[in-house]
Amino acid sequence: MDLGLNGRWALVCAASKGLGRGCAEALVREGANVVITARGADELQRTAEALRALNPAAEVRAVAGDIATPEGRAAALAACPQVDILVNNAGGPPPGDFRDWGREQWIAALDANMLAPIELIKATVDDMAARDFGRVVNITSGAVKAPIDVLGLSNGARSGLTGFVAGVARQPRLAGRNVTINNLLPGAFDTERLRKGWAAGAARTGQTVDEIMDKRRATIPAQRFGTAEEFGQICAMLCSAQAGYLTGQNILLDGGAYAGTF
Ligand code: NAP
């Protein structure tokens, strides 16, 4: 199926690695032009080269910067001639005990995982509506549906974004003009972020990384970790021309790990 993305412009935040990169790859394969961001310029440039090789017809621009800051967002927006597709993403907050977190830690989590996406939505959706096409995909977390104790900063910040999106996605001036806003909730995906967590767990417990991975894998009905590639493909489907009636949803991609009916 042609997803109707050829020639569209996408801003994909936090995309030099992992899930963001998976989204950028899928969009480029579908013919979209992309602006990708990350803080580390070298890795970002390498990823931009790899994306260009995937589809030489697509234009790929790389903007180094911190998407959690106003300057980082302004640079990313300035590089994108028009934002037809916005994929909101940033690194997740660190794990810990809420007793150790003060205002500084909370503000950092809110800046990256709640306020940055809200600011970018604010900067783009009305122009999308004026053009009668827009797709916003926020990468959040399965922890929004099934909170993880030690990820309290993430649970809190992402739940705030989720509540905001539930309201704004249903504004007739957006939904009625073919602008959709949805959240993609990853379960366990084999990315650098998870690998670092497994390595830290191995150092803490004396188990090997393989043992830790095997135990975690066994808890997932699909019996495997997700890949950034398949995550990106679902993102591209949400961004497709065909997905205009799908908005305000929280879509869990977790191989069946969440055991609830709804
Ligand atoms: P990852 O492999 O560590 O990749 C993170 C990417 O984001 C890198 O390109 C990183 O590059 C960039 N980045 C991080 N902070 C940024 C910032 N402030 N501004 C711009 N770019 C930034 O992580 P991932 O596994 O893909 O995770 C992506 C998001 O999904 C995270 O919020 C994570 O918490 C969430 N999540 C992931 C999983 C999973 O299984 N992987 C599960 C649930 C939720 P630089 O470091 O160079 O900036």
TrEMBL record:
Listed Gene3D superfamilies: NAD(P)-binding Rossmann-like Domain (3.40.50.720)
Domain of life (superkingdom): Bacteria
Pfam families, sorted: adh_short_C2
Family, similarity comment: Belongs to the short-chain dehydrogenases/reductases (SDR) family.
Protein's recorded name: SDR family oxidoreductase
Lineage, highest ranks first: Bacteria, Pseudomonadati, Pseudomonadota, Betaproteobacteria, Burkholderiales
